[in-house]
# Entry
Amino acid sequence: MTRTILFGATVHTMDHAGTFKADLAIEDGKIVSIGDVDIQDGDVRIDCSGRMIAPALTDIHTHIYWGGTALGVKPERVARRSGTGVFVDAGSSGAGNVLGLDTFIFRPSPFYTFAFLNVSFPGIFGFAKEVMIGEAEDLRLLDKSACIEAVSRHKDILVGLKVRAGKLAAGENGGRALEIGLEIAETAGLPLMCHVDFEPPTIETILDSLRPGDIITHCFRPAPNAPVKDGLVKRAVWAARERGVHFDIGHGMGGFSFETCRIMLGEGMLPDLISSDIHCLSIDGPAFDVLTTLNKLVALGLDLDTALKAATSTPAAILKRPPLGRIRAGEQANLAILAPGDEPSKLTDATGETLILDRPLTCAGLVVKGMAIDADGLPHPIRELKEC
Ligand SMILES: [Zn+2]
# Structure
C-alpha cells in the first residue's frame, strides 16, 4: 500500500495535540502518523509548506436536498472550494420526505451527511425566488407522531429537529411552532435547531425557550429581531449562553450582519458554530460557503483558532461524531488544506455592507473519507491530491 505524505504544513489537530508543524502520513485512507515521517520508497510526497491543515470543515447548516426541494443545492459545488467534508441539512426535509433525502442525496454522497428533521411534514417546500410559502404557516403540517416515527426510522442520519419560528416561515404561528418543535425534540431526545427571522416570536422568546444543547441559527442577524439593541448585546443572549444554548451563524441570504457581529464580538459573545446556510438564494452570494463565512468572522476580529473550532470540533461534538472534527493518528483522514490567499477579497454581509480582507483563507486541497476531492466534488485516490 502506498503512503501519501503531506509535509511542511502547520497542523491544527483540534485535539489535545494542538497546533504544530508536522508531516502527515496517510495509508489506506487513514492517518498513520503525525510528526517527522521517515520517507520510504514508493511514498507519494506532497509539499504543503506555508499551508495549514485542519480537519475538513463541518457546515452544520446547509440545504442539500437538491432536486427534492427547490431551495436545495449540490454540496459538490462548494466542497473543494471551501474545504468542507461534512454537510448537515437543516430542515429541508420533514417526516414526509426524509427518505428521499437519505436515499437519493446522502447514500451516494462522497461526503459525511446528516440532517435536522423539519418538524413540518413536507420540510421547506415553498422556498424559491418565485414562491415563498412558509412550512410552518399551517400548523396542521406540524405532526408530532409523524416526526417521532421518522426519527426512529432514520436514527443513523438525523441529529436533531428543526423549526423555523419567524414571520417568514410561520406567519403568525411562530410562537406555537416553537412550542411544538420543543415538545417533539424533547420526546425524541434530540436537540432542536431554531431559526429566527421577523417576529413573532421575538428573539428573546426563542432564546428563553431553548434548552441546553439546542441551537439558535441566524444568531448574528440584522435588525429587526436582532440579538443586539442600541449597540449592546441583549440580556436574553447572555442568559441563553449561560444555559448552554449553542449559537450558530447560519449566514444564508438574510441571517448575518457585520454590524451585529461587531457588537457581539466586541462584548465577547462569540459564535459556537459557523455555518453557511447555503441554498438556492445564498450559494452565489452573499453566503457562498462555510469558509467564506468563516473569513467574515475573522475579518471582524475573531481569532482563527476559535473560528476553526466553530467549523470543526464543536459541530462534530454536537453531531456526536468527535472524530469528524479532529486530526488524530489511527483515524480516517478528513483534511482541509488551507492557505492565505494572495489577493484581497471583498466580503459582503446579508445587508449589503462590504469589507475587504487582505488575505482570506482559501482551500488548496480537500480529503474526505481518505479520498481527495476535486473541484467537481468527485473523489479520487489520495495520491492524486496535488491534481485535485
Ligand atoms: Zn436554512
In short: Residues 61, 63, 90, 250, 252, 277 surround zinc ion (CB under 6 Å). The chain has two domains: 3-54+328-384, 57-321. The chain has a mean pLDDT of 97. DSSP finds eleven helices and 22 strands in the chain.
